[in-house]
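In the design runs reported in the main text, the only information available to the sequence generator was the tokenized backbone. The following block is the verbatim input for one such run; it is reproduced so that readers can re-run the procedure and compare outputs position by position.
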């Protein structure tokens, strides 16, 4: 049975000033939302201090959180202002591909809500 979900989903994009990849990541997630007609809002969270990085459990820029949980989780004791890389089909890149984002969002929300 398909579950109706009319709630707007909150996707947070965490980044820091000077990150060369966060804008590409933002464009990719916008494309996924548009392509899959996901009822979502993107919230940009600019990480500015080491303390904020620790508080937000910042794994590097860019990072995607859904309900405050990273879409590519990783266990760490220390969080910092740093760049993040993603293993893509084309090798390591500074942001996930559109298809990688689609897959993670589908896993997180389930096919019924997309």
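Verbatim output:
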């Amino acid at each position: 049975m398909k579950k109706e979900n009319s709630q707007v989903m909150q996707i947070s994009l965490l980044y820091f000033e000077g990150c060369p990849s966060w804008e590409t990541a933002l464009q990719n997630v916008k494309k996924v939302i548009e392509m899959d007609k996901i009822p979502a809002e993107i919230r940009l969270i600019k990480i500015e201090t080491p303390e904020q990085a620790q508080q937000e459990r910042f794994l590097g820029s860019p990072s995607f959180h859904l309900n405050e949980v990273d879409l590519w989780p990783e266990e760490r004791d220390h969080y910092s202002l740093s760049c993040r890389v993603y293993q893509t089909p084309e090798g390591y890149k500074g942001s996930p591909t559109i298809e990688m984002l689609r897959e993670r969002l589908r896993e997180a929300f389930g096919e019924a809500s997309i």
